């Protein structure tokens, strides 16, 4: 199972990838949507964990592009803002939404839910 993590906060996303690796989850990461699209074209990811608010391409826009090319990919959204509109948008697109800072066990639970 490969996981793609996309968040413009480099320290956060790299730490999440490292923590997932401690739990035997193979996670790649990037800090922008354009690179994420290129990575997804080269690697088969089961789940993408996307920051809702990123410069240039936000999580919802990225999810739409990824889903068009990879219809079996599942999505989990992250937000540091926690607005109700983000929650509703994230749920409409996949019903998997976490507020930062994310507890790694909560992320693991959401990954398992997405794959169920």
UniProtKB/TrEMBL annotation:
Domain Response regulatory: 2-115
Pfam families: Response_reg
Residues spanning the membrane: none
Modified residues (4-aspartylphosphate): 51
Entry keywords, A to Z: DNA-binding, Phosphoprotein, Two-component regulatory system
Listed SUPFAM superfamilies: CheY-like
Residues of the signal peptide: none
Keyword RNA-binding: no
Keyword Glycoprotein: no
Name of the protein: Response regulator
Species this protein is from: Pseudodesulfovibrio sediminis
């Amino acid at each position: 199972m490969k996981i793609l993590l996309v968040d413009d906060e480099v320290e956060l996303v790299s730490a999440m990838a490292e923590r997932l690796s401690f739990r035997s989850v193979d996670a790649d990461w990037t800090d922008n949507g354009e690179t994420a699209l290129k990575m997804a074209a080269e690697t088969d990811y089961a789940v993408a964990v996307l920051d809702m608010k990123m410069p240039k391409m936000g999580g919802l826009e990225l999810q739409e592009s990824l889903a068009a090319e990879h219809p079996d990919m599942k999505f989990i959204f992250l937000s540091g803002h926690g607005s109700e509109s983000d929650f509703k948008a994230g749920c409409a697109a996949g019903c998997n939404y976490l507020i930062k800072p994310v507890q790694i066990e909560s992320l693991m639970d959401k990954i398992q839910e997405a794959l169920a």
